[in-house]
Amino acid sequence: MTTDLLLNKVPEGTSAAEGSSAAEGSSYVLQAKAVGRDYQQGDSLLPVLRDTNVAVKAGEKLAVVGVSGSGKTTLLNLLGGLDDPTAGRVTVCGADWQGLGVSDRAKWRNQHVGFVYQFHHLLGEFSALENVALPCLIGGASVAEAQQRAEELLDKVGLGDRLKHKPAELSGGERQRVAIARALVTSPSIVLMDEPTGNLDPGTAGVILDLLLTLNQSLNISFVVVTHDPAIAARMDRQVNLIDGQLVELETAVV
């Protein structure tokens, strides 16, 4: 499918770039205050998070570590507005997720939040260029602008010569590079990552991590990285450990 055909499938709509004046006056891109999350389990409630607090500044890199099942992915979903807390509130660039309707929440997320997962979740029938351009199109960018921004990001992640390749034609590391470019293409304020190198071999994981750190420095985008890998956590600015549903600050990492 050509880029033009893909673009014709995207409904026209207003851009999510309505300005970020709501964030002015705050030094934090993201804040979670007294956040709790319970799940119904039979006749009882299972508390996963309780009285959880975290704040992330512009350009800051935060690692979230913890044992399997501790609630790290649940926390990430709350921070990104994909789920709602049972208690407390989460704000991104001054906007409270729970204060936004479905449409406004989607627009705000498209403008301010990127996601990178352990598995790339690329659309198999689309090229690398089309996958990366899609968030821009959803946000209301023109065909030309979306394509230009996608090309620029793919070039930044070293895939300028693989624009027309589909995911099946790319290696695991290349697919994850496309996923990273897709997360960054709208110039979000923060990118949330769930084990972004967990599905890669150690050598490729190291290359991806170096790439992420370089992009963080050049673009000044905040990162929240959920990881089991102590080597990755150690290269972030801060580390927090999720223990018994609460975040505990660890010693500042030395890069």
From TrEMBL:
Name the record gives this protein? Lipoprotein releasing system, ATP-binding protein
Q: Where is the composition biased (Low complexity)?
A: 12-21
Q: Which domain of life is it from?
A: Bacteria
Gene3D superfamilies given for it?
Answer: P-loop containing nucleotide triphosphate hydrolases
Q: Name one GO biological process term.
A: protein localization to outer membrane
Q: Which family does it belong to?
A: Belongs to the ABC transporter superfamily. Macrolide exporter (TC 3.A.1.122) family.
Alphabetically sorted, this entry's keywords are: ATP-binding, Lipoprotein, Nucleotide-binding, Transport
Cellular component GO terms held in the UniProt record: plasma membrane; transmembrane transporter complex
Q: Where is this region: Disordered?
A: 1-21
List each coiled-coil range: none
Q: Which InterPro entries match?
A: AAA+_ATPase, ABC_transporter-like_ATP-bd, ABC_transporter-like_CS, ABC_transpr_LolD-like, MacB-like_ATP-bd, P-loop_NTPase
Which species does the entry assign this protein to?
gamma proteobacterium HTCC2207
Q: In the record, what terms sit under GO molecular function?
A: ATP binding; ATP hydrolysis activity; transmembrane transporter activity
- Domain ABC transporter positions: 30-255
User: Where is the signal peptide, in residue numbers?
Assistant: none
